User: Fold this.
Amino acid sequence: MHIVRLLRLLSGERLIGLGQEPCYGEGMPEKRDYYEVLGIGKAATDSDIKKAFRSLARKFHPDKNPDDPEAEMNFKELQEAYTILSNPEERGKYDMFGHDRPGGSPFGPRGFQGVNINFDDLFGGGFESIFSQFFGDSASSSSRGSDLLVRHSIPFQAVMDGIDDELEIDVLRDCTGCGGSGSNSDDGARPCPSCDGRGRIDEISMIGPFRQRVRKECPSCRGSGRLVTDPCGDCRGEGRAYQAIRVKFSVHPGVGPGTRLRMRGQGEAASSNRGHTGDLYIELEVGTHPWFERDGSDLLMALPLSYADLALGTSIEIPHIDADDLRIKVPSGSKPGETITISGRGLPRPRANSRRGSVTVVLKLEVPRKTSRTMRKRLNEMRDDMEDELDVLEDRIKKEAMSRRRG
Ligand SMILES: [Zn+2]
Ligand SMILES: [Zn+2]
Assistant:
């Protein structure tokens, strides 16, 4: 086991862009009303909003609509509508101003960027915390620890079988020496005078005729609300220190490369010990197979055969990913480039009880580089014999061209 490379997700990076932000300029469709997007009325309750979001999100989730740009757009539009309407303060502003609120988009100049939600979370309800992070107005979200991203490689075989895996990461956690307080003694800290121990300060700014309150992390205490007077030797008063932790997780069969597993509360500890620990995302990379290429749940391989194997036909058995040998029957008279498809022997499909994918075998002709004298003699005899079996050369050329043009 080795320590893996960790990336700290910046708040913008935590959100995975789901395609380009649509432009609502000339000729583009008007940005839709958030209530219309969720299919609810203006009087909808919080639970109506959540219910509508959950059911539509399941419908448009990328896992259920792979390579479908329209579903992706719908999914993102839905997320944006939910982000605003599920936040009472933002919903109030939207009700008053619609999309043209003073101060521009609440998501900044680039607009809403989309979030990566696990399909599973749409059942359990683990998705709310992702959305509450957009607006740093609640105490829990502003003092939340950073989310972390780690890339982890699993063997190809794990896509077939699934795997219980673990990794070790070095991550900022509450210091064990001081229990996260940053101080050696119980009275070794005093409330920060700049923010009165709140950890945040409010700045008032004017946007046109509107007064807007912007809440910021207090720079004096860096959001902790406390100033340490008797710093702990282990963490130098930080309250957090790097610790090697072991994370265990399960990978389901059929998983695709780039899948992100979200490990709630396994990220970085919050800088103030009142906040929640961030999440850890494990991005899966899948190792290569010695001969298979992967296309979703289908597998593709090339089978190099001799001329005799192609002409006479043959049956081949090779070890396979499902522990049963893979039997490939090559019919007599096969040509290089022809394919044999064996259905139901590919990879499992994620989150579906449907059949496994298929294995497609492309036949190749392998010609020996060197030939012995006796082999050359036999090949020459064979050539003479075959000339008798085949049409005259000119007819052969014409026939080949005709079948090629027929496609
Ligand atoms: Zn400490
Ligand atoms: Zn402060």
Observations:
- The mean pLDDT is 83.
- The domain at 293-406 is CATH 2.60.260.20 (HSP40/DNAj peptide-binding domain).
- The pocket of zinc ion (ligand 2) is lined by residues 192, 194-195, 199, 218, 220-221, 225 (CB under 6 Å).
